[in-house]
Amino acid sequence: MGGTAGEILSIKFENVSYIYDRKTPFEKEAVSNISFEIKEDEPIAILGRTGSGKSTILQLMNGIIKPTIGMVEVDGIQTSDKASIVEVRKKIGLVFQYPEHQFFAENIYEEIAFGPRNFGMNETDIRKLIMDSIMIVGLRPDILSRSPFALSGGEQRKVAIASIISCDPKYLIFDEPTSSLDPVSAKKFFDMLKVFQSRGKSTVMVTHSVEEAITHFKKLLVISDGKIVFYGNSDGLLNEEALESWGLMPPPMMRVISKVKKECGNLYRLKEKIYSTDSDKFSDIVFRETKK
Fold it and tell me: What's this model's pTM, rounded to 2 decimal places?
């Protein structure tokens, strides 16, 4: 991937605010004066508790909603420009948290074909895109004649992803993609993300799981009460108290290290391992915290 000299290749928010139900008694500011830029080939996780403004950011990226104040650009195209919104949506593939809410077709083939047809692709190319898409997400061709509503939650998630990647978007955006997945299925999802990235796709994932975010992404954006409270490399997000103040659960190992520092003391590091002179208390803390 890559553009011509001078071409802007990023998703950019500039002083963006969004207000739901504006000028009504139910008016609520979901995001407030936020600015950031997601550059091409820069996978990023957006972290925040429920109601923090994460999903609003995704809808602003895709042009589903327009900023009340400020500007959102996708590769230099403003999402508020009605004449260019189709081009924006070709670039942005958004998979919602509940994929079954996106389905409408009688069978999976027609479900996945809808997007490419809507963008004017011919049927031969559409079939190739469908077969490629289901191969990437791990679905068999014989599933294409089935109803998407007859599938398991995990299979529905795969169909939803296939229906997005069949449109060949540049940016793939996932809203809480592992929320209903078991650990094995979640691992398969992150393996799939690596395939997307190897094919030149930029990936954005919204999640409330700090552990998933710091494990699979180098760049993080944390939003709390509609404001950006952290934006940078994942190794900088190591403050347990800050995470808790933002309504996020610190990962088990972070809790272990914090508790050990408070209760054991006399810690030392040897060959990338942490040791304590109070081994009994150390073991007890590790057992307690990893069981939470």
Answer: 0.81
